[in-house]
Predict the 3D structure of the following.
Amino acid sequence: MPRAASICLVVGCTQRSARSGRCVTHAPVERPWSRTSARNQLRDAARRQWDRQVRPRALARDGFACVRCGEREALEVDHVTPIAKGGTWTLDNAQTLCRTCHCAKTQQERREQ
């Protein structure tokens, strides 16, 4: 159902509002630069590659089962060495774990810090 038209948020303006809640005259100017830093862009690209390529290959390589207990339900692909500790986004740093084993591994890593 369409929303009712509203007026601009700027005091004294009676024009209809656009997406930002302001009229075309008072809408914020589009900035020519990206809000994402170069470092975050690299991280995001690595994350996309992980989701599209590494994760499915790790699941297939590990036989769609947890490498610790053999469970086949609630599987997650985990970094063997966490990214924060110098791990990579590659297949050799990926392993398939069930949710229970993944939580246990994460808790153990936090205790070791």
The chain has a mean pLDDT of 87. Strands lie at 75-79, 94-98. The first strand starts at residue 75 and ends at 79. The longest helix spans residues 38-61.
